[in-house]
Amino acid sequence: MSIRELESLVAVADRGSITAAAERLFLSVPAVSAHITSLEVALNTQLLDRRRKPARLNSAGTLLCERARGVLSAYRQFYETVSDSADLAGMLTVGASPTVLTNVIPKTLVALRAAHPRIQVRMRYGRAWSLLKDLQHGEIDALIISQPQGAIGDTKWTSFAREPVMVIAPPEAKGRTDEALLAEYPYIRFGKRFWVGDTIAAHLAARGIVPNQIMEVDSREAIALMVRHGLGVSIVPESDPPLSKLYGLREVPLGKPPLTRNIGLAESPGNPKQPLIDALLRGLKEITQSSRQRRG
Fold first, then answer.
1. Contact call for residues 135 and 127 (beta carbons, < 8 A)
2. How does pLDDT run across 15-40, given as a tens digit for each residue?
3. Rounded to an integer, what distance in angstroms lies between the CA atom of residue 115 and that of residue 231?
């Protein structure tokens, strides 16, 4: 019986199927299925009701799952933090949306490791709402995401950065305003699965702007390349360094005052790793401030 097998069991319980659990764990479906089978062989007990489609945990699987949560919690706390903040130690599991602060996060982790060599960080990327569930289930310790648009229970969210939302256009574009650029070219929408996509759509609707949407893309980099080749314009949160500089694009702020999205750190109260989380938040603030001053 291994930790990975127990993680698979809990993921099946939380996600409702082996397929969804595999997506959550970034494993193949056969790998997660093999983990469950291995547990069943070790315990000589069926843990899944395979008569259902998709297969779900049976009563024995549900009982074992609750015990497994305790084991996984103890495992994550194996490296105990010490009282001296100058000598922090432990494993910190951090989630992040793939579109958020792609340059700030690695710089922060480098600085954190230099200041506290005994801190080990495990990163997990995914969709914001899915990661929020992981945070609330104790599967991750902290989460770097844009400001949630709805209630998140007792989860604490602390803002530490603000990203401007920009209209990016081909270098030869003639329009001088956001509205003019959106009228001049077809519109490449930034993916619906990101919260900022809904924020942008609401902003355009409030101004009565109906762009000629031709496609939807989830990657800022892919969008920048399409815009660079003249396929259309798009609206994206500004990256660090800005996509406009990397690809030679025209760029204007969206709206007056310019629309921004807030980035922050989400955490659950009562986490015994609070000193590690605080160190991470301090690092994110410092690197963000340094980056802002460099660009200013």
1. no
2. 888 888 888 777 888 889 999 999 98
3. 46
Whether residues 198 and 238 fall in one domain: yes
pTM of the model: 0.66
- Distance (Å, whole) CA 145 – CA 295: 22
128 and 173 share one domain:
no
Each residue's pLDDT tens digit, 163-212: 889 999 999 999 999 999 999 999 999 877 777 888 899 999 999 999 99
What's the CA gap between 234 and 194, in Å, rounded? 15
Indicate whether 7 and 96 sit together in one domain.
no
Please check whether residues 235 and 123 belong to one and the same domain: no
- Beta strand residue intervals within 78-212, DSSP E: 89-96, 118-125, 142-146, 156-169, 187-190
pLDDT of residue 193: 73
d(C-alpha 23, C-alpha 52), whole Å: 20
Separation of CA 54 from chain center? 27
- Nearest of 92, 101, 98 to residue 288 by alpha carbon: 101
- Cα–Cα distance for residue pair 42/88, rounded to 1 Å: 37
